[in-house]
Structures are given as C-alpha cells and as structure tokens.
Amino acid sequence: MSTFESTIRQINYPQQSVYSKLSDLNNLEKLKERMELMKDSMPEEARQQAEKIKDLTFDADSMSVNVPPVGAIRLRIVDRDEPKCIKFETEQSPIPFNFWIQILPVTTTTSKMKLTIKADLNPFIKQMVKKPLQEGIEKIADVLQMIQYE
C-alpha cells in the first residue's frame, strides 16, 4: 500500500467549522461556483490547472470529476468521525484509492488539516503516478486551506 500525504496546513477556523463545511459536499458545490467567477483574476498557472478539471459535481456524500488524461473519478464519503476525520473511497477511478481529511484543533479558533491518499500500486505504476499524486494532494490542500469556513 502506497501512502501520499499533504503537508500539515494551518486553518484559521475552529475544527468544528471546518468539519461541518467539508463533511457535506454540497458546500463545495457553492465553492466551485465562486471559483468559476474568480477564474479571470487567477494567476495564469492556477487558471490553467483549473481549466484541466472537467465535469466537477458534488452531492452531500460524493463528488465526481474528469481529469484528462486520468479520466473520470468518483469518490464517496464512507465514514465521518465528527469533528476530526472524513474518509472517502473511490467508486470509479482508473486506480482505486482511499482518501481522508484529518482535522485537529490547535486553539478554540484555529485548527490544522492533513490530507492522505492510500492506494495499492504496483512498483511500475507507483513510479508513474508518484509525482502527480503528491502535487495533486498539495493543490487540493491549497484549495481547502483557502476556504472561508464560516
């Protein structure tokens, strides 16, 4: 089993606020709409990355995205451990994996977050996807760190 982890991110909101927002994926649908409006003001590299993501959809318990050249990926929440962890697993993906978001309190008004992906990869595939997966998990962490969790 191969593990990929984001760096630990400081979030300037309480643990419960972060958990509440992320445990209902409908909240991310609203964020997606706001990101579309902000695309023109993004730096060129960020805009190019955002334009690669196609067909991003959410409901309360799942999300789907099409990322060329990887293809379609669908994740479903399989466990909610309020207020500290949200676990996902793939329903559709070229490479099955588990993904979770850990949220821990730092103070009563701040928290920290770490993202983890675990996948059963053979050595050849691992070498091919290691760098893109690590970069991808960091970019997801960047986005989640910027959310206003009010």
Quick structural overview:
Helix content is 37%, strand content 37%.
- Sheet bearing the most strands, described? 8 strands, antiparallel
Could you say which overall geometry the principal axes of the C-alpha atoms support? globular
* Count of β-strands: 8
Residues in β-strands, percent: 35-45%
Query: Which spans have pLDDT < 50 for at least 5 consecutive residues?
Result: none
The helix/strand class is alpha+beta
How many DSSP helices?
4
Residue-averaged pLDDT: 86
Radius of gyration: 15 Å
Q: Ends: how far apart?
A: 36 Å
Helix percent reads 25-40%
H-E string: EEHHHEEEEEEH
Description:
- The protein is an alpha+beta fold and 150 residues long.
- 37% of the residues lie in helices and 37% in strands.
- It contains 4 helices and 8 strands, in the order ββαααββββββα.
- It has helices at residues 15-23, 26-38, 44-52, 123-146; strands at 2-5, 9-11, 54-58, 62-67, 71-81, 85-92, 97-105, 111-119.
- Strands 1, 2, 3, 4, 5, 6, 7 and 8 form an 8-stranded antiparallel β-sheet that branches.
- It is globular and about 45 Å long.
- The protein starts with a strand and ends with a helix.
Observed structural traits:
eight-stranded antiparallel beta sheet; 37% helix; alpha+beta; 37% strand; 8 strands; 4 helices
Task: Please outline the helices and strands.
Layout: E1 2-5, E2 9-11, H1 15-23, H2 26-38, H3 44-52, E3 54-58, E4 62-67, E5 71-81, E6 85-92, E7 97-105, E8 111-119, H4 123-146
